[in-house]
Amino acid sequence: MATTETAKTQIDIAKIKIGVSACLLGEKVGYDGNHRHDRYLTQTLSLFVDYVPVCPEVGCGMPIPREAVRLVGDPDAPRLETRNTHEDKTQMMTDWLPGKLTALEKENLCGFIFKSKSPSSGLYRIRVYGDDGKVRKTGTGIFAKAFCDHFPRVPVEEAGRLNDPKLRENFIEKIFTLRRWRKLIDAQKSLGGLVGFHTRNKLLILSHSQDHYRQLGKLVAKGKEIIAQEGIQELFDQYEVLLLKALDLKTTTKKNINVLMHILGFFKKELTSDEKQEMLTLLDQYRQGYVPLVVPLTMINHYVRKYDKSWLKDQTYLNPHPFELKLRNYF
């Protein structure tokens, strides 16, 4: 049975709101009247997030079933047309978009998962059938593009790409970090609150980018000056932009080993020679690809508890997302 604290944490985590293409949840909204059910989303990730489903084609007034649509014309500003009858649906979609985007503002989404290969919702390499007869895989779905333009700081990903464990971990880490950031803004938009957040997330940021780690540290150090000259909102805006840019850069084995070696420095006086050697052996095995990241991290967390390292206990890097998602178990 979960402890009270664990249960409370899980309840809080479940309040994360994520937008999602409705067909991925099993809703029969596809052009053929079927769904594109993604079981990882509905059976695993759904334990920790609440979904806000969106089907732009149905939302803008297209029926179920319907003739399939595709992107046509200029790759930078394509039209949305039906495949066989060439009926232009662009205006129908663009008339619907502003109201839907405004409604989504109220949801305070921490991310959005789009349907791959969709002319309305796909993010990457969507086919655009040019007027010159050429087909280019350079498009973005009309709704997906509008969403990204309207919410540039909200993490987005395609469901198909989440099958890649590294992309999956990166996306989910971003949505949990953004949620923690927004909770800080709601509770304590102050320099002290920002310093506390930055302190807790130092190692997480470092695992993504040394450069952004330094930039964010300098920004926080100049916090009083920025607040005096431009206000607290400007300081928080600058921090949020840099934080999300850092998280866009994926972690690597080399980056993680750098952070883990940094953590080991906190145990210079405590670890026995055998414990230190055991840790170094695990790091070498991780470096060579024999064990996943979760193995050395489990040992590190053991030492953190055993030697009561309070600063490390607060580091989100050691537990950035629910253990049940197994995001650090891949090789």
Automatic annotation (TrEMBL):
Coiled coil: none annotated. Pfam families: 2-thiour_desulf (PF04463), DUF1722 (PF08349). Transmembrane segments: none annotated. It comes from the Bacteria. InterPro entries: 2-thiour_desulf, DUF1722, UCP037004. Residues 202-322 form the DUF1722 domain. The lineage of its organism: Bacteria, Pseudomonadati, Thermodesulfobacteriota, Desulfobacteria, Desulfobacterales. This is DUF523 and DUF1722 domain-containing protein.
